[in-house]
C-alpha cells in the first residue's frame, strides 16, 4: 500500500523517538526504501539534523511527540515509586508481624522481658508500685554456630529488696520472613543469686523447625574472688574466665543435632571455681531434689571448699 509523503513525514519523528507502533515503523521503512527524498530526510532525523524551511514538521506532530514523551516519563516515575513502595512496605509488614515477640537485638529483647517480669518479684501490686525501678544489666549471649539461635543473659537487681536474679532467654531468627528479627522462644527468671557464690543455668533451644538445637550454659558468681570456671561438659574440659560482670557462658560442644532430654548433671560432670592464683574456691555438685507429688530431679550446686 502506498502512502502520501506527508503521512510518512508525520510518522518519522515518532519512529525516531521510539513511540510509534511497530506497524507504523514498518510503513515508514518500506516507504523510505523506495523514496529518495523521504530517505534523505529520515537520515537527517537519525543524525539530529534540523528540518529545512521548505519542509517543516507539522506542529501537530511536534505537540504529539512532546506529549508522548511526557507520558512516558510520567509512567516511568509511577512504576519507580510503586516498586519502591512495595520494596519498603512488604518487609516492614513482615517485621511488624514478628515485632510483638521479637526484637532487633538480643540485649533489647531480654531487657524488655526482664522489665515485664519485674512486677512478679513483689508480693503485692502496691509493693511493686512503691518500689524503686530494677537495675537490669546485660551480661552477654551465646549464639549457635550458624548465628540463627541464641541464649541471652541478664542480671536483675531490685534495690527495694536488695535481691539479685539471673534471667536467661532463648531466641531464634532462622525464619527468613523475620528479616533478622530475634523471636523469643523461652525465658526464665531464675533464682536469687546474691549469696549463692557460683550459679549456673542451662538452656536447650530448638530452632530451624526443631531440626537443630542450641545447648548452652552460663555461669555467674556473686563471690568477687572467683575469676575462673573450669568444667567438663559433654566429655570435654572447658576453662572460662569471668568478665567484669562476673559472668561467662559457652556453647556445649557436639550437641547441635542432639534433641535428647538431659539432666544438668548428665551434661556437666565436673566443675571447679578458682581464684586468680588457681586456688579452688567452689566445687560443682549434682544435688537430687524431691518433687512434691513424687519423683525427683537433679540440680547443679556449687559447694564452697
What level of helicity do the residues show?
25-40%
- State the assembly state of the protein chains: single chain
What gyration radius follows from the Cα positions, in whole Å? 37 Å
Distance between the termini: 109 Å
Order of helices and strands: HHHHEHHEEEEEEEEEHEEE
Instruction: Provide mean pLDDT, rounded.
Output: 81
The major pleated sheet works out as:
5 strands, antiparallel
- Spatial strand order of the main sheet: 1-5-4-3-2
Q: Give the DSSP E fraction (strand runs of 2 or more residues).
A: 25-35%
* Number of E-type strands: 13
Q: Count of DSSP helices?
A: 7
The shape, in one word, is elongated
Total number of domains: 2
The helix/strand class is: alpha+beta
Defining key terms:
elongated, 305 residues, five-stranded antiparallel beta sheet, 13 strands, 7 helices, 31% helix, alpha+beta
Question: Describe it for me?
Answer:
This protein has two domains: 5-96, no CATH class; 104-304, no CATH class. The protein contains seven helices and 13 strands. The chain starts with a helix and ends with a strand. Helices cover 31% and strands 33% of the residues. Strand 6 and strand 7 (212-221) form a beta hairpin. The chain has a five-stranded antiparallel sheet with strand order 1-5-4-3-2, covered by helices on one side. A five-stranded antiparallel sheet has the order 9-8-11-12-13. A three-stranded antiparallel sheet has the order 6-7-10, with no helix packed on it.
Amino acid at each position: 500500500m502506498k502512502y502520501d509523503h506527508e503521512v510518512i513525514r508525520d510518522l518519522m519523528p515518532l519512529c525516531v523517538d521510539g513511540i510509534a507502533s511497530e506497524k507504523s515503523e514498518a510503513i515508514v521503512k518500506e516507504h523510505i526504501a523506495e523514496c529518495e527524498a523521504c530517505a534523505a530526510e529520515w537520515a537527517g532525523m537519525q543524525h539530529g539534523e534540523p528540518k529545512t524551511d521548505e519542509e517543516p514538521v507539522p506542529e501537530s506532530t511536534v505537540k504529539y511527540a512532546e506529549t508522548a514523551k511526557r507520558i512516558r516519563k510520567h509512567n516511568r516515575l509511577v512504576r519507580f515509586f510503586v516498586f519502591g513502595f512495595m520494596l519498603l512496605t512488604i518487609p516492614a509488614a513482615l517485621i511488624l508481624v514478628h515485632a510483638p515477640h521479637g526484637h532487633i537485638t538480643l540485649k533489647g529483647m531480654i531487657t524488655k522481658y526482664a522489665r515485664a517480669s519485674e512486677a512478679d518479684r513483689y508480693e503485692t501490686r502496691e509493693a511493686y508500685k512503691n518500689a524503686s525501678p530494677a537495675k537490669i544489666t546485660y551480661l552477654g549471649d551465646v549464639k549457635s554456630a550458624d548465628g540463627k539461635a541464641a541464649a541471652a543473659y541478664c542480671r536483675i537487681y531490685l534495690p527495694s529488696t536488695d535481691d539479685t536474679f539471673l534471667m536467661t532467654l532463648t531466641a531464634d531468627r532462622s525464619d527468613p520472613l523475620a528479616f533478622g528479627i530475634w523471636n523469643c522462644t523461652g525465658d526464665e527468671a531464675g533464682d536469687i543469686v546474691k549469696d549463692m557464690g557460683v550459679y549456673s543455668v542451662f538452656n536447650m533451644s530448638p530452632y530451624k523447625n526443631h531440626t537443630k538445637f542450641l545447648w548452652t550454659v552460663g555461669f555467674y558468681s556473686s563471690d568477687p574472688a572467683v575469676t575462673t570456671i573450669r568444667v567438663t561438659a559433654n566429655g570435654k574440659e572447658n576453662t572460662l574466665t569471668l568478665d567484669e560482670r562476673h559472668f561467662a557462658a559457652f556453647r556445649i560442644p557436639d550437641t547441635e543435632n542432639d534433641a535428647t532430654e538431659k539432666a544438668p548433671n548428665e551434661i556437666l560432670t565436673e566443675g571447679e571455681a578458682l581464684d586468680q592464683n588457681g586456688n579452688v574456691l567452689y566445687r560443682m555438685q549434682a544435688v537430687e531434689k524431691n518433687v512434691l507429688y513424687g519423683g525427683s530431679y537433679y540440680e547443679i550446686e556449687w559447694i564452697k571448699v
